[in-house]
Amino acid sequence: MDGMTTLQFPRAHLFIVVILSFGLSSFVIAKFTDDPAEDRFTTESVLLDLPQIEDKALSNQASAPVDSEAITPAVAELAMLPPRTAEPELRPQPQWQEISTKVQPGDNLALIFKRNGLSARDVHLVSTSKPLGSRLKSIFPGHELTFFVDDEKRLMRLDYSSGPLDTLAFERNGEGFDAEQITAEPERVLAYKHGTIDHSLFVASQRAGLTDALTMRLAQIFQWDIDFVLDIRPGDAFYVVFEELYHDDEFVGHGNILAAEFVNQGEPYQAIQYAKEGAQPNYYAPNGNSMRKAFLRAPVEFSRISSNFNLRRVHPLWKTSRPHRGIDYAAPAGTPILAAGDGKVKIASRTQANGNYVVIQHGEQFVTKYLHLKNFGRGIKSGQRVKQGQTIGYVGSTGWATGPHLHYEFLVNGVHQNPRTVSLPNAAPIPKGELPFFHAHTQQYLALLDNYKSQVSLALAR
Ligand SMILES: [Zn+2]
Description:
The structure is a single chain. The chain is of the alpha+beta class and 462 residues long. 18% of the residues lie in helices and 30% in strands. It contains nine helices and 20 strands. Strand 3 (155-163) and strand 4 form a beta hairpin. Helix 5 (109-115) packs across helix 6 (120-127). Residues 1, 307, 324, 326, 328, 407 line the site of zinc ion.
């Protein structure tokens, strides 16, 4: 319901948006970098001799002299992470002629074949081959095609690369083609970055040579402890150990952040990536506590709070004393609403007052409610399990609502609490029995981080 109070909460932007994935990341980045004071920012970027840093961006810069003794052999051994699988074996015959070409704007397969003197019949054979031939219909400019042809210009083999790591290999088999998908495992190389913040994390990160996407991931890791809009102070610093991916000595992208430290107002926060075999990786503090809370503070990216939690409110429409047991987050219709935590949908239904609404049960103790939805997220129905951050619906104004907003309620043991101030439980820590394995596994990354930090401070002291 629309209310009388209007509070600005810019702090909500970051921690919601980072959950929403990169689709929205440009919005946040714009917010952070849109600062006229940008020129004042300084970020130290020091080149240090660390285990196998193949930092192409830094290697061009004037570097500080390097102390190779500072690296303990144990740490240096970790430098090169082993490639996960062997290189695929390509089998072109020596007598075939090889023709490599790049897809140009406006190209299609027939044009490319014609341009390279290949027959329309081979276009047909290869593009209708089962099961992968249809993939050749979605070629894009920049993709690479390599033809291997015999003396009669018959296509014997076609390699189609949609990226440095992904190749489809079509090989002639009589009057058809067999196909095989080849995914190359990139070489994973450790990289290190450090920045000191004068004002904004994003400016400091750019100075340090961190991509926006990597900065988003860094902010995402610490979002539960640090409000990157309100809590950041000059002198805050970050250290990141992450993977750079290479294939044939060419940089092809960033891998994961393995370990990171963020020093906020003098307080250091450390996080290490860890995953059980086959499970999704998460970030944990060195003691095994999860970096994240079990609930998002606000389950939607909102522009303002249109009505606060107030148990003694006089209702704006009915003029009677009617408590407001939740918070109204004003947001444009269609804005995704996220499950605040892992749980099970108890109700996904519609009433006259609530409009479309969802109730989620989180374990025994907690219930969250989401009202006035325009519509439900895909697959959202009673009994459905949901993950934190999953879209369960979209902001609307169904039911008794005067404008698009999310009415959000948070119940602990059946009692309404103020969603903005209720103390949120931590997400599950590493189970006690698994802690020895966790420590054994994460110790190496903490060592890398500590080693890097001491080298940075040595370099800065010179
Ligand atoms: Zn409300």
